[in-house]
Design a protein that fits this description.
Helix content is about 25%, strand content about 10%. It is an alpha/beta fold. Among the domains are: about 100 residues, 2-Layer Sandwich (Herpes Virus-1), CATH 3.30.40.10; about 40 residues, Up-down Bundle (Monooxygenase), CATH 1.20.1280; about 220 residues, Alpha-Beta Horseshoe (Leucine-rich repeat, LRR (right-handed beta-alpha superhelix)), CATH 3.80.10. The chain has a 10-stranded mixed sheet with strand order 10-11-12-13-14-15-16-17-19-18, with helices on one face. It has a 5-stranded mixed sheet with strand order 2-1-4-3-5. Helix 10 links the parallel strand 10 and strand 11. The chain starts with about 20 loop residues before the first helix and ends with a strand. One of its GO terms (biological process) is proteasome-mediated ubiquitin-dependent protein catabolic process.
Length: about 550
């Protein structure tokens, strides 16, 4: 019966799994290799789907679904105590035919099998060893189950043992080259020293080794008798033989690889791109200067600008001017690729909309550190893990921040965002809050408590528009905090949205009269507020009455 007809495991290698015990398995991702940079958690597209280079398991094991090809049962080495019995009941995968069997199920005995000591449950089965097949595993330390007599030493006239496979021979030559390179302490010797080194390397073979045999007992089949020169032009001659012996050069080791640079190098757009005129095919320049072209481009939308960038190289450079991109909308994108982020940085917009996108924390930090002139940032619907990048990014020019409907955000996390950076000096706590210059803040749908509201009043004193709609914890005490005599928002608040706050009652309505600059008050969908009480507030109001275009919506003309 052929190996392909015995079952699904014959002839097809089973994919091994992690051992979860070696040093590589228990460590974390490095974040620097090309596989980590491709992961979505580090800001990549997630296409390779490979593990970190430093987390590749050194001793992968067979999957738990692997069974014996002959008896159909899994490994049962845990049911016995003796070492011989454990081996007979453990699953072993052959590196040649890829069959997974119990050694005890084979009728040929275990004396002819060869175990791979580096990979668990890996061997060369007795059937493949008896047929003389070549192993597919390279460089592994093999342990024979039964000691075999050493092959006779080769004579000077010809080999006495069969030659190994070309793959094994190539691997052994590579090992010998590495050993010779490690033994050379200095590579800047003169030509006379090089000749003496080549002579000494030829006589460094021990006397008990065969003339054409390598140090590990393998005999190369090519280059043992012919006269060949290595890459350095030196030859090592073995005394007592008729011809030179091929040896690897003792030249300098290859220089270390330079550190890997970033894939996308982003440069800010030049302040005055060249040229200032548009060259024509006839050799002359267009009569309109660059300033006139930019005025024309300002009447185009993003789609038309992208079409103009394909016309010529000059227009492509001019269309990157930040005056043409005051606002960029990337909302509801499934993934943000590195070219998209690079394009945002080159255009330097003043307003950026990333709402309902899968932007990661690393991507957001990368953007905020390169958009120093950003004034409006919309992150509604994003995850808090990515929004937490605001706590470590400089936002000197930010005026509008939209954090509506952030997923899995807690009150303690909001406090970390509102508190000043850790490097703030004790005397500058009041003036160095992260939201110090923000004028409009949208926090709809968040679990905002009165403790977080106190921090908001302390570290964001310049708010003129505040959105607290659908915040479940906002009630009458929250309104009292906003309109208290010590509150800085009492004199600056112009727009206040409290729609959907079901804890508000009619007792909090008179407190809004303390805000003289209030122009818009949204109390819609507040269940415990009566329309009559809202109508009385609209009639009295702060200085000047309000008008009610809708029920519980109070507006005042400026």
């Amino acid at each position: 019966m052929s190996s392909s007809s015995r079952g699904p495991g014959a002839g097809a290698r089973r994919r091994r799994t992690r051992c979860r015990r070696c040093r590589a398995c228990v460590r974390t991702e490095c974040g620097d290799c090309h596989f980590c940079r491709d992961m979505k958690k580090f800001g990549g597209p997630g296409r390779m789907k490979q593990s970190c280079l430093l987390r590749q398991c050194t001793a992968p094991v067979l999957p738990h679904t692997a069974v014996c090809l002959l008896c159909g049962e899994a490994g049962k080495e845990d049911t016995v105590e003796g070492e011989e019995e454990k081996f007979g009941l453990s699953l072993m995968e052959c590196t040649i035919c890829n069959e997974i069997v119990h050694p005890g199920c084979l009728k040929m005995g275990k004396a002819e099998g060869v175990i791979n000591a580096e990979i668990p449950n890996c061997w060369e089965c007795p059937r493949c060893t008896q047929e003389g097949r070549t192993s597919k595993v390279k460089g592994g330390r093999e342990r024979h189950l039964k000691k075999k007599p050493k092959p006779p030493l080769a004579s000077a006239e010809g080999p006495a043992v069969p030659s190994p496979s070309p793959q094994r021979e190539k691997l052994e030559r590579f090992k010998r080259m590495c050993q010779l390179l490690e033994r050379v302490p200095d590579t800047s010797s003169s030509s006379s020293d090089s000749d003496s080194d080549s002579d000494s390397s030829g006589t460094s073979l021990s006397e008990d080794e065969a003339p054409g045999e390598a140090r590990n007992g393998r005999r190369p089949t090519r280059g043992s008798s012919g006269e060949k020169e290595n890459r350095g032009g030196r030859r090592a001659v073995r005394p007592g033989s008729g011809g030179p012996l091929l040896s690897w050069p003792l030249g300098p080791a290859p220089p270390p690889r330079p550190p890997q640079l970033e894939r996308h190098v982003v440069r800010p757009p030049p302040r005055s791109p060249e040229p200032d005129t548009l060259p024509l095919a006839a050799g002359s320049d267009h009569p309109l200067p660059r300033a006139a072209w930019l005025r024309v481009f300002q009447h185009l939308g993003p789609r038309e600008l992208c079409i103009c960038m394909r016309v010529c190289r000059t227009w492509s450079r001019w269309c990157y001017d930040k005056r043409l991109w005051p606002r960029m909308d990337l909302s509801r994108r499934k993934s943000l690729t590195p070219p998209m982020l690079s394009g945002v940085v080159r255009r330097q917009p003043r307003a950026l909309d990333l709402s309902w996108t899968g932007v990661s924390k690393k991507q957001l930090m990368w953007l905020l550190n390169r958009l120093q002139g950003l004034q409006e940032l919309v992150l509604s619907g994003c995850s808090w893990l990515s929004v937490s990048a605001l706590g470590s990014a400089p936002l000197p020019a930010l005026r509008l921040l939209d954090l509506r409907w952030i997923e899995d955000v807690k009150d303690s996390q909001l406090r970390e965002l509102l508190l000043p950076p850790p490097d703030t000096k004790p005397g500058q706590t009041e003036s160095r809050g992260r939201l110090q210059g923000v004028a409009e803040l949208r926090l709809a749908g968040l679990e905002l408590t009165d403790a977080s509201l106190r921090l908001l009043l302390r570290h964001a004193p310049q708010l003129s528009a505040l959105d607290l709609s659908h915040c479940a914890h906002v009630g009458d005490p929250s309104v009292h905090l906003l309109t208290a005599p010590t509150s800085p928002l009492r004199e600056t608040l112009v727009h206040l949205n409290l729609a959907g706050c079901h804890r508000l009652t009619d007792h909090c309505l008179p407190l809004f009269r303390r805000c003289p600059r209030l122009r818009r008050l949204d109390l819609r969908s507040c269940r415990q507020l009566s329309p009559e009480a809202c109508a009385r507030l609209a009639a009295a109001g702060p200085p000047g009455p309000f008008r009610c275009p809708e029920e519980k919506l109070l507006l005042k003309d400026s």
